[in-house]
Design brief:
The complex is a heterodimer of chains A (286) and B (159).
Chain A: H1 2-32, H2 37-67, H3 71-108, E1 118-123, E2 135-138, E3 151-153, E4 158-165, E5 170-174, E6 181-186, E7 192-197, E8 204-207, E9 220-223, E10 235-243, E11 252-257, E12 266-271, H4 278-285
Antiparallel strand pairs in A: 1-12, 2-5, 3-4, 3-12, 4-5, 6-7, 6-9, 7-8, 8-11, 9-10, 10-11
Chain B: H1 3-21, H2 35-46, H3 53-66, H4 73-94, H5 97-121, H6 133-156
Classes of the chains: A alpha+beta (286), B mainly alpha (159).
């Protein structure tokens, strides 16, 4: 009796050791390769419905709100939106002219031609993930052509990038996640910098700027396009604190994200316009 | 144990997962107890022959996918938790309620520190004392959860 019990126990322990080894292998494989995409997809068949169920209270709430919105307020909103639309259209006309001019100038220089970015709107699946990761779930996945590393914006600025894709949803890591870094530059003078997430939803750290760097309070950082992940020129953050400590090699700078990371319900997924290379353009002009 | 009974066990996990994901305002989030872990501990105590390390690992993998984490982190933590709980189930079942709560608290802390340690190695997490808050709330909820789950188990005659 006793021997059987000890045998059962040791086999249980063996199973635990095996599973721990398997977990470590899975972690390494998931971090370094994409072999486990199939496993993730299979588990997402269970996980995605769970997320959708958890987000229903919020959706019912919105539905009720829509139901009881008065006609008056809808009309007001409509008028306001129409005005906004007119203004934006007017600006767009100027943009189109500028874009054409820019393209022809670039062609004259035989430089890489910039192709406009494509966007897709996605809605957040309203679930609260574990508070120590700054991640969001959006309702677009592989079936909409979403890929890992895709930049995510809101109307104000850069929010983050897609880090996991599933068939119908994907996870977005925000720029404030402690493991996220964003290549940026100061809009005013093109000074390059990198912003790091701090785990605090309204704080970014700007590192590796020396004491003589030309940076001021209120400067806006935009994406620099370095690294190829984020298209250049989208606003990232605004500098709100610069500490000059002579005993440190670099300035201690904090910035506030421009995007409304905690309030945006709709986000934009961007496909970067694939810019033609210098040699392609030379071939074209021949 | 037949199909319907397994279905009931699955349903308790569905409820636990949904409770873990339901949107809450930011300041409440650190206080949210880890329902999936509590339900896992319960089933490991109640039916240790059928529900153990392997199931814990699978549930953990599902937690990793729903939380969009690196695969394997919670799987490792939950497999260890399930193993410890099923090893100690006879003792924990015998304890009076306050001793039982204390051992559950220790199990929760072991699980949280294991997962927290791995995640800080991966650079996903910065510890602060709020990190342990969910275990405190979890152990406060445990006695009530235990009663509800026991009644459910007796009603469904799962053993």
């Amino acid at each position: 009796m006793a021997t059987r019990d000890t045998r059962a126990r040791s086999s249980d322990f063996l199973r635990l050791v095996l599973l721990i080894c398997l977990s470590v292998v899975v972690m390494l494989a998931d971090r370094r390769t994409d072999y486990l995409q199939g496993v993730r997809f299979t588990l997402a068949m269970v996980a995605t419905p769970l997320q959708l169920i958890a987000s229903t209270p919020d959706r019912i709430g919105t539905w009720f709100q829509d139901l009881f919105t008065s006609e008056e307020s809808v009309n007001q909103a409509n008028t306001r939106l129409r005005g906004e639309n007119m203004k934006l259209r007017a600006r767009l006309q100027r943009m189109q002219a500028l874009e054409a001019e820019n393209a022809s100038l670039r062609r004259l220089l035989a430089a890489a031609e910039k192709v406009p970015d494509q966007v897709l709107m996605a809605e957040l699946v309203d679930v609260s993930l574990d508070p120590y990761t700054h991640k969001l779930i959006v309702n677009r996945g592989v079936t909409d052509g979403i890929y890992v590393g895709q930049p995510v914006l809101d109307p104000q600025g850069v929010m983050g990038q897609v880090t996991e894709t599933m068939p119908f949803t994907s996870a977005v890591t925000l720029i404030t996640d402690p493991s996220h870094a964003t290549p940026a530059q100061v809009e005013r003078n093109g000074l390059r910098a990198i912003t790091f997430g701090t785990g605090n939803p309204d704080k970014l750290k700007v590192s590796y700027l020396t004491h003589n760097a030309d940076i001021k309070l209120g400067d806006v950082l935009v994406t620099s396009g370095m690294g190829g992940r984020f298209p250049a020129g989208y606003p990232v953050a605004q500098i709100n604190e610069i500490i000059r400590d002579a005993s440190e090699a670099f300035l201690r700078i904090t910035a506030t994200p421009v995007a409304r990371l905690e309030r945006s319900k709709q986000v934009l997924l961007v496909w970067q316009g694939i810019s033609k290379t210098f040699s392609d353009n030379l071939k074209d002009s021949e | 144990m037949n199909g319907t009974r397994w279905l009931i066990v699955c349903l308790t996990f569905v409820v636990a997962f949904v409770l873990n994901l339901i949107p809450l305002p930011g300041w409440v989030l650190p206080y949210r107890p880890d329902w999936v872990v509590l339900v896992l501990i319960y089933w490991c105590l109640a039916i240790p022959d059928r529900f153990g390390t392997g199931m814990g690992w699978l549930i953990g993998l599902l937690v990793d996918v729903t939380n969009a984490n690196l695969l394997g982190v919670h799987a490792l933590g939950m497999a260890t938790l399930a193993y410890l709980t099923s090893r100690l189930h006879l003792r924990i079942r015998m304890f009076p309620w306050w001793q039982q709560s204390l051992s559950i608290f220790l199990l929760l802390l072991i699980y949280k520190s294991l997962v927290g340690w791995m995640r800080s190695l991966l650079g996903e997490l910065q510890f602060d004392w709020m990190y342990w808050m969910s275990s405190v709330i979890g152990v406060m909820i445990w006695p009530w959860l235990f009663i509800v789950m026991r009644d459910l188990r007796r009603y469904a005659r799962i053993s």
